[in-house]
Amino acid sequence: MANKTVSADSGFTLNTLLNLWPYMWPADRADLKARVVWATVYLVAAKFILIAVPYFFKWATNALAGGDHGLTPPLPDFLLAPVMLVLAYNVVKIVQLGFNQLRDALFARVGQYAVRQLAYKTFVHMHSLSLRFHLERRTGGLSRIIERGTKGIETIVRFTILNTVPTVLEFALTAIIFAVAYGWLYVLVVAVTVALYTWFTVWASDWRIGIRRDMNNSDTDANTKAIDSLLNFETVKYFNNERMEAERFDRSMARYETAATRIWTSLGWLNFGQGVIFGAGMAIAMWMSAREVMAGTQTIGDFVFINAMLMQLSVPLNFIGFIYREIRQGLTDIEQMFDLLDVEQEVVDKPDAGRLLVADGKVEFRDVHFAYDPARPILKGVSFEVPAGRTVAIVGPSGAGKSTISRLLFRFYDVQSGSILIDGQDVRDVTQESLRAEIGMVPQDTVLFNDTIAYNIRYGRPDATDEEVRRAAELAQIGGFIEHLPGGYKAMVGERGLKLSGGEKQRVAIARTILKAPPILMLDEATSALDTHTEQEIQAALDLVSRGRTTIVIAHRLSTVISADEIIVLKEGQIAERGTHASLLRRDGLYASMWARQREATEAEERLRIAREADEMGVVVRRRTEEV
Ligand SMILES: Nc1ncnc2c1ncn2[C@@H]1O[C@H](COP(=O)(O)OP(=O)(O)OP(=O)(O)O)[C@@H](O)[C@H]1O
């Protein structure tokens, strides 16, 4: 079972590395490629210099032991030992350090470039995905995945090139020197030790990656819960559920705690095993050398040389474990990010899609059938037409499919059958970007960016001047409100615009749309009851913005659609009635009964308001009388 996971993972690892390659060796960036090449040159040079150190030790030892001990540099005996020691301990270390720093400095930009490119690509991809994906995703978890993924890339880019290559190189150099100077038996001992060490490290690291995945999952889970809970803080308070939320969070954290603890204990085992394997290999090689020194076939200098070579090899070997773990862990982290990148776009532009050309902005729904889930049809053959510059209102019971019509017009989803046309062009035949540029939307619930009011209004047309922003705000009947805010247009709106009321947010949305000035307009009326004064203000702003534009209004309050050119009554995904306000009332059907119900409700509300006012007046009159 473990083996199966490992082999499946290995396939994936290769795939992930291949996916990463273009970011480490970017085709269009010769400067970055040059950096990679130079970093590699310094890396190789640093290794070659390091290999000289055991020789310096050997010659120093032989000089100290006295006598003729084979090949040594032509230096007088009294100078040999100190010169060699200075070379081994100081010069080589300094030069090597310099080369390594150069290598890192050169490579830093390559790594950071890869991180930025992938983060950018993921971000752009997120925005290209369908509404369905975004409705199903969990924001907290998503941001953690991207954060860990980009960190993972940095790790992989650095470690594959900067560490794996030099380690392999050092091992090869050691093997060659041993083979030439001491015979194949030494190479065999070193090779078996390195092979065992690497095998054990890979095996143990794979085992630990499973644990790491558990840890990541519980970390993501805990984070999602925390963010979700904090975003819903009002609901939590309404229901007094702070304790329940804390316990839910703590349960996720407990899973994280267990996994994180296992990560540390397993690391202990890994280090222990590596130590045992390397210690055994070292003891065997040194015993072989010691016997030769006693037999007179090797010098004490050779003994020191072999010891120094092996000790030196243990450093990158230690790194092999570390690098493998880092690369694998990095891969685990970016695996999820690549999964995100693999999520396919649901709504795609046709290869030959052109721009939408709006002449006068006629909108037409032709026998539209649509379902979010094939098992549950939402729109069942809806046909209507909005002539250029006219207003059509869509009304109907909750869940009838009204908002779905606006999502389809924006092409957030594709229809199952039928078509949606703007000035005779099917929305599927034009680019989504050009389609959305021509339609303005005032949604039911406006969510604002956590920035200034000016930023949020200017979102409709980012190049709008301050004066244009101000004018749009005034037309949307929110200018006065903003002027009186501390900070005015620079006032921050809070996370998701929570510092503004529903009516204020909607007027910001109207101001945005005024700036965008699209030929086609979609107004999704707020369901939440607004007070009469605010409603009138918003209505006035909406009337103004829709003047001369093709407008579809999704209405919940029938009072706002009386003047519409046509009213479409939607029921269970089908058009039940259609006509003007007066003709629909005459018909005495669904619309007429909805109208009667709303009037009753409004009148009841009105009676309640008058009673309340009378009551307040009474209190005042009584108080006045008492005072008199
Ligand atoms: N993303 C979705 N996935 C699955 N079903 C959905 C989705 N969005 C909406 N629905 C369902 O489609 C139906 C129509 O939804 P829609 O939002 O169009 O209704 P509506 O008429 O605008 O209602 P309301 O007046 O309450 O806003 C509803 O039953 C709703 O549950």
UniProtKB/TrEMBL annotation:
The protein, known as: Metal ABC transporter permease
Keywords: ATP-binding, Membrane, Nucleotide-binding, Transmembrane, Transmembrane helix
GO terms assigned for molecular function: ABC-type transporter activity; ATP binding; ATP hydrolysis activity
Protein family: Belongs to the ABC transporter superfamily.
SUPFAM superfamilies according to UniProt: ABC transporter transmembrane region, P-loop containing nucleoside triphosphate hydrolases
Annotated TM spans: 36-57, 77-99, 156-178, 184-205, 263-288, 300-324
Gene Ontology cellular-component terms listed: plasma membrane
